[in-house]
């Protein structure tokens, strides 16, 4: 006898709740269909379901996301970095207290107290006809962040070495939920032949029909749940082995929305508005926001970050603020709306030469007009860089571009060999936007505060009842 096992999965929703009613409708129908057929079916999520860019996720600190997954009927999930490092320790510790599904992550460890009851390294399921399914979870080890929040993420390969033998002995089929990214998934498949299926995420890759590496099928469904993934496994009970593995992703953007989920989201949004509706400041005049000009609010916010981090100087890009703040009462909802990014302050150390190069690069049109996607940035363009603690001498070239002539600290030109501490948005510590910052060997991240927390502080201290 052969038995088909169906695994439906989502990854990297990032609180894209406009799409969620379609996801809910698709998965509820899929699960109901398999129940009618008396076939085995599991619903899984691979992390970054929570993203505090959305007011609902912000107001409920991710617990509403868990409520939404409960409603759909998920069986097991793992954590992404957006669950792991954008919530305070206690918020993450209690995030899944009310989950009706299992949470699996073999390489997340609590440094402050005993592990939360919901956190399991491995979980097991049985199919309708008794096939044993072992599920391991892994998440990306951003320990520069995690350890500031009193968590530690161990090396994923060592975690697999610790558990894979016992899982293989206890289960007929081994599945890995991996919030590590495509390259890590491929490396794991090459090294651990015991794993039958790797369902991935984190790097937002879309594998429409899966990828086979060393007899392991790897799959992932992109980002924002425009696609839902499905893995179909065929188990031969007589031969006692898997005889076929296939993976698909389905574009669900054209499908109807589940009406009950829409109602739930409307209710959650109303509650979120109430929770975020507390007045932070009262403005007598509108605060202007301009992406390509230096404004009062950006100057003050950059000053706040310099003070907050005790750095020698600070720099922030004007594209961080998405819209103006109108005169009158300003609520936390308003602040979240104009600064939704899960971005933290960070201090790096740069030589005078490196800092000069960073300042010069920040004045280039290419950087200012860059339409950045990722690295925590949820805006449109990088925008003009604003500085605190530095004086920048510039000249306008014949083609209209502004060019940096010199950079001064405390009235003197930067010393090429001196080390300066520079406060930046942590966005620039990744990738190659500003390579000198990304390559800095000293990075001090400030958690759990986001830049919008510094914005709220700035508004209270510099703009409450004051004109721009």
TrEMBL record:
Keywords: Hydrolase, Nucleotide-binding, Signal. It holds the Pfam family 5_nucleotid_C. GO terms for biological process: nucleotide catabolic process. The keyword Hydrolase applies. It comes from the Bacteria. Residues 286-427 form the 5'-Nucleotidase C-terminal domain. The keyword Hydrolase applies. Residues 10-205 form the Calcineurin-like phosphoesterase domain. GO terms for molecular function: hydrolase activity; nucleotide binding. Belongs to the 5'-nucleotidase family. This is Metallophosphoesterase YunD. It comes from Lentibacillus populi.
């Amino acid at each position: 006898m052969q038995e088909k096992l169906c695994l439906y999965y989502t990854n990297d929703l990032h609180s894209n709740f406009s799409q969620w009613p379609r996801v809910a409708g698709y998965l509820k129908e899929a699960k109901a269909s398999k129940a009618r057929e008396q076939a085995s079916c599991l619903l899984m999520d691979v992390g970054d379901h929570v993203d505090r860019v959305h007011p609902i996720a912000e107001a409920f600190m991710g617990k509403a996301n868990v409520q939404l997954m409960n409603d759909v009927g998920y069986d097991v999930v793992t954590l992404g970095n957006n669950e792991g490092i954008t919530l305070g320790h206690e918020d993450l510790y209690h995030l899944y207290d009310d989950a009706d599904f299992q949470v699996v992550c073999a390489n997340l460890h609590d440094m402050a107290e005993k592990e939360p009851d919901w956190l399991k390294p491995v979980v097991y399921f049985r199919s309708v006809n008794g096939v044993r399914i072992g599920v391991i979870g892994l998440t990306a080890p951003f320990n520069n962040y995690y350890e500031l929040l009193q968590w530690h993420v161990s090396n994923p390969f060592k975690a697999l070495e610790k558990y894979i033998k016992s899982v293989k002995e206890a289960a007929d089929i081994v599945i890995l939920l991996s919030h590590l990214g495509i390259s890590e998934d491929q490396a794991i498949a090459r090294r651990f032949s015991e794993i039958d299926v790797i369902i991935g995420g984190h790097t937002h890759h879309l594998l429409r029909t899966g990828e086979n590496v060393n007899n392991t099928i790897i799959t992932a469904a992109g980002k924002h749940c425009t696609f839902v993934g499905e893995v179909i496994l065929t188990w031969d009970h007589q031969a006692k082995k898997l005889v076929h593995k296939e993976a698909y992703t389905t574009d669900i953007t054209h499908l109807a929305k589940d009406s009950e989920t829409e109602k739930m989201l409307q209710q959650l949004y109303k509650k979120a508005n109430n929770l975020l509706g507390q007045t932070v400041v009262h403005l007598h005049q509108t605060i202007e926001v301009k992406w390509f000009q230096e404004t009062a609010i950006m100057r003050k916010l950059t000053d706040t970050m310099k003070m907050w981090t005790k750095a020698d100087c600070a720099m922030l890009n004007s594209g961080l603020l998405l819209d103006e703040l109108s005169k009158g009462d300003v609520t936390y909802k308003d602040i979240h709306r104009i600064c939704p990014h899960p971005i933290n302050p960070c201090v790096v150390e740069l030589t005078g030469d490196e800092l000069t190069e960073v300042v010069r690069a920040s004045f280039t049109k290419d950087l200012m007009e860059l339409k950045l996607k990722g690295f925590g940035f949820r805006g449109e363009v990088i925008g003009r860089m604003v500085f605190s603690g530095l004086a920048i001498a510039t000249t306008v070239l014949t083609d209209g571009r502004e060019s940096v002539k010199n950079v001064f600290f405390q009235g003197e030109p930067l010393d090429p060999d001196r080390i300066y501490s520079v406060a930046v948005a942590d966005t620039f510590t990744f990738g190659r936007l500003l390579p000198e910052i990304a390559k800095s060997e000293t990075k001090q991240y400030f958690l759990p505060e986001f830049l919008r927390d510094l914005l709220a502080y700035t508004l209270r201290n510099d703009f409450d009842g004051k004109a721009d």
